[in-house]
Design a protein that fits this description.
CATH topology of the largest domain: Trigger factor, domain 2
Number of strands: 11
Radius of gyration: 31 Å
Number of domains: 3
Shape: elongated
CATH architecture of the largest domain: Orthogonal Bundle
Largest sheet: 5 strands, antiparallel
CATH class of the largest domain: Mainly Alpha
Helix content: 40-55%
Distance between the termini: 65 Å
């Protein structure tokens, strides 16, 4: 077998492979003779069909099958011979061999980059140093009271903290757009489950009042028809409801799932949950700093285009699923140009290459105990944790994804241990705020798709776990 490799551009390689005709011909001959022993044709006894007849009828088909198999096998052999590691599937151009003679093909593909990881010996980190105070616990208790509030209709204009039931219909330049209508939508003013400008515009309105509220969609909003444009939401107030908060006592504790120990036990559990949240948030901040510095230090590493494109596709799919869950829009209504995800995808591919390199160089092995703990954490978010654990255990792809995540965290911890760290005093609210706010701000369109107050109303730190 003859192999030649040409560098076309960057990481792209064009590999020409020539396989002697005998390798194909001999295999074709062998298969046809075996076939002749089994084939049944009218006018011939089983196994007595003349070989010439078998060759004429089945020769082209068998040759095509053999060519495909020899091509795939010789491609792998050529990669091994030339010590090449492809970054994706090749584009194959068959040059000759279909009709006879030597098999020759060209395979064009990208290779994995060769590089040395930079910056691991100069990482400098600021570690958030936040303490959980009584005030932090009291804040969560206040949010729990708000969750357990009972609302009663009042005959007065809406004010901060009220729940306003509204109908709205949005238009852009007088035209409808997907998900533009909401009916009987409860909006708690100040909860930030809707854009602040939308919530604040409801202050002072009473039942029966109407108001046009403007909202400008982001420049990268997924629906192209309204991207970067200003919508006018004609809003009708159906009712104004005032919150009646429960007393801060043992009854509140029982209402959120604390059967024994009352309010004092609830305070302890909230403090423990906040401390766990603080630990996770602190690690997330350190991880963000580590990855940011690694990405900058290794910014010149060439990344395979095929891997970036694959990452863009994955990000597009994730965003589509998220939007469909929130708004009910289908694929035809969503336009998510790849350019929106280009920078994020490239960064993720780069960091993946860097992490893999560090894992191999430093022989970092998966900590099975940490993987089990991570799986238990994931399962704890579902009604039947044991079913989730079993499902992961039987799904190798899901389990592998979880293990990769754990392994990457082990690399991060390995780097943190070797970094220069300075503690930075921070309040718990400052530490947790990015996680509480989420990645994107809800829109009136999102709210209509949820058919309620949305997930954000239930995600205040500590309270969702207070009943565990």
């Amino acid at each position: 077998m003859e192999v030649s490799v040409e560098t076309t551009a960057g990481l792209e390689r064009k590999m020409t492979v020539q396989v002697p005709a005998e390798r194909v011909d001999n295999e074709v001959e062998s298969r046809l003779r075996n076939l002749a022993k089994q084939v049944r044709l009218d006018g011939f006894r089983p196994g007595k069909v003349p070989f010439k007849v078998v060759r004429k009828r089945y020769g082209a088909q068998v040759r095509q099958e053999v060519l495909n198999e020899v091509l795939q096998k010789s491609y792998g052999e050529a990669l091994q011979q030339e010590e090449l590691t492809p970054a994706g599937a090749p584009e194959v151009d068959l040059k000759q061999g279909l009709e006879g003679g030597d098999l020759q093909f060209e395979a064009t593909f990208e290779v994995m980059p060769e590089f040395e990881v930079q910056g691991t010996d100069s990482i400098s980190l600021e570690r958030p140093a936040a303490e959980v105070t009584d005030a932090d616990v009291d804040k969560v208790l206040g949010e729990l009271r708000q969750q357990q509030a009972r609302y009663s209709t009042v005959e007065r204009p809406a004010q901060e903290g009220d729940r306003v039931v509204v109908d709205f219909k949005g238009t852009v330049d007088g035209e409808d757009f997907p998900g533009n209508v909401g009916e009987d939508q409860p909006v708690t003013i100040g909860s930030r489950t809707m854009p602040p400008e939308f919530e604040q515009a409801l202050i002072g309105l009473g039942a029966g009042d109407e108001k046009e509220i403007e909202y400008t969609f982001a420049e990268d909003f997924p629906t192209e028809a309204i991207r970067g444009r200003t919508a006018v939401f004609r809003t009708i107030v159906k009712a104004v409801e005032e919150a009646e908060l429960p007393e801060l006592d043992d009854d509140l504790a029982r209402a959120v799932g604390i059967e024994d120990g009352g309010l004092e036990e609830l305070r302890k559990l909230i403090r423990k949950n906040l401390q766990n949240e603080a630990l996770r948030a602190t690690h997330a901040r350190l991880k963000e700093q580590v990855t940011e510095q690694l990405a900058k230090a290794n910014a010149e590493v060439s990344v395979p285009r095929a891997m970036v494109d694959g990452e863009i596709s994955a990000l597009q799919q994730q965003m589509k699923q998220r939007i469909q869950q929130q708004t009910g829009q289908n694929d035809e209504e969503l336009d998510l140009p790849g350019s929106v995800f280009e920078e994020q995808a490239r960064r993720r591919v780069l960091l993946g290459l860097v992490m893999n390199k560090l894992i191999r160089q430093n022989e970092i092995k998966l900590d099975q105990e940490k993987a089990r703990s991570r799986l238990q954490e994931v399962a704890a978010n579902y009604p039947n944790p044991q079913e989730v654990i079993q499902y992961y255990s039987q799904n190798r792809e899901l389990m592998q994804s979880l293990e990769i995540s754990v392994l990457e965290d082990q690399v991060i911890d390995w780097l943190i241990d070797r970094s220069q760290i300075t503690d930075k005093p921070l309040s718990l609210d400052e530490l947790l705020r990015p996680q509480q706010q989420g990645d994107t701000e809800p829109t009136p369109q999102d709210e209509a798709g949820d058919g309620g107050e949305g997930d954000g109303a239930e995600e205040s730190t500590g309270k969702q776990k207070s009943g565990e």
